[in-house]
Amino acid sequence: MSRRTQVLGGLVVLAGVLWWVGPEPFVVAVRSAGPGALVAALVLTAATTVCCAWRWRVLARRLGVDVPLREAVAAYYRSQFLNATLPGGVLGDVHRAVRHGTLPVVADRGSGQAVQVLAAGAVLLVGPAPWASALLLVAIAAALLRWPAVVTASLLSSAGHVLVFLVAARAAGTDASLAALVPLALLVMLAAAIPFNVAGWGPREGVAAWAFAAAGLGAAQGATVAVLYGVLALVATLPGGVLLARGAVRA
Prior knowledge:
Elements: H1 3-21, H2 24-31, H3 35-62, H4 69-85, H5 91-100, H6 102-124, H7 130-146, H8 148-171, H9 178-192, H10 203-214, H11 219-236, H12 238-250
């Protein structure tokens, strides 16, 4: 799949969301990015970045690559900033792979997404299919016994992203209960991993609009929350931009 195809796919989805809900949700989202929400996103993202860096370091060591935790955190911040600002949403991981080896980065991304899918599936299937949810929980428990550090770090990281989404929902004026918002957040987080995006934008907003509409909260509100989440996530990765700038100056 070419990068041009990925970007075009994201643009098509964004255009569809704009046609569906109009420009107002995008304006409201930017206006809702207050200091409290921004600080919360920075703090939560710092915690998730440490968790992800720890997971990457554990996997890298098992593959014979030593990445000190401080260096891993800095590299992860740079990676997140590049993913959030460049088309495709993966160029930051390519940057990590060039500097620290491809296999550890692939293992890191793959394990994180696998745990996220299992955890999201377990939560989303509790109501309609409890037996399937039980099987997924057993799978998570089995993985936890084999790779406790990797699974724990992945679960904590996913929880951090969900919390940032909840911060965005409250800042955007959504008064739905946490029980209603958490499954929606998990769906949107899964959509954010779809490769057809423009620096993370596209499927995330489309799925949020659809999911909020299906839940009776309104497509416009879903788009507003997703856009605000994107704004908060972008601001929270700015330390990575600072690190890249410092590296460029030193070079």
